[in-house]
Amino acid sequence: MLLIHGDETQEAKSTPAEDAALMAEYGAFHEGLATAGAFVDGARLQPTATATTVRVKNGDTVTTDGPFAETKEQLGGYYIIEVPNLDAALAWAAKVPSAKHGSVEVRPVWEMGAE
């Protein structure tokens, strides 16, 4: 899984032309994944202002507005890819357009039922 992190405050300052250019880069990236047969799933997430965090403490459910942790970079989207090894995943992560301004965490998805 490629977890895409970026600074929402900087993204909010971008111009419509900059937004369009970034979306064009993502279109090309997505097409490259699909052509290579590596694309499984992906989505852009709404801003953290729309998030609610749920915790259960002593049997009580507690909800708070916003993401779990305060950080300079927020999770903005993800891609689930299918590739033969970590090196291939890292190569795709380096091609994510937002990697130039934020970070992309590469993490294997836990296969349910796998020991």
UniProtKB/TrEMBL annotation:
InterPro entries assigned: Dimeric_a/b-barrel, YCII
Domain called YCII-related: residue spans: 7-112
Family: Belongs to the YciI family.
PANTHER family in the record: BLL7171 PROTEIN, BLL7171 PROTEIN-RELATED
Protein's recorded name: YCII-related domain protein
The species this protein was found in: Rohdeia mirabilis
